[in-house]
Write a structure and sequence with these properties.
This protein is mostly helical. Helix content is about 80%, strand content about 0%. It is built from 4 helices and no strands. Helix 1 (about 15-35) crosses helix 2 (about 35-55), helix 2 packs antiparallel against helix 3 and helix 3 (about 60-90) packs antiparallel against helix 4. The longest helix has about 30 residues, at about 60-90. The radius of gyration is 18 Å and the shape is globular.
Length: about 120
């Protein structure tokens, strides 16, 4: 069975990479502009990355601490994408919409717990 091909999938090679980078930048800018939580987490990252570089004794420790922070942004972006898609479909109160949004929120919370655990284990040995 032949699936229809998206008209947005036509580029290949370097043009595709350039387009993808543009879309990624647009997504980051939209999240920063429209999502308070994403902005707060970016500011947290800006404050804590230099601290991770300073406090980490090895490259592995620094990498783990910074990766945990980046994971928060990644999960927040995915959560925001789910919320935007769900809101596009319907703004009504519905148990499945609530479940989707609550699960996204839980994922963000777990990524923040991960930051606390990684930083604690690295700093306290």
């Amino acid at each position: 069975m032949n699936e229809p091909i998206s008209p947005f999938k036509g580029r290949t090679g370097l043009a595709r990479v350039i387009n993808a980078a543009g879309y990624s930048w647009a997504g980051l800018a939209a999240a920063f502009r429209h999502e308070d939580a994403f902005r707060q987490e970016v500011f947290l990252l800006i404050a804590l990355v230099p601290l991770a570089v300073y406090l980490g004794d090895t490259g592995i420790e620094r990498a783990l601490m910074i990766a945990a922070l980046l994971l928060v942004l990644i999960v927040e972006l995915l959560n925001s994408a789910v919320e935007a898609a769900v809101d596009r479909v319907s703004l009504e109160l519905h148990p499945l919409i609530k479940r989707a949004k609550d699960m996204g929120s839980a994922a963000v919370m777990l990524s923040l717990v991960n930051v606390a655990m990684v930083w604690s284990l690295v700093l306290l040995g």
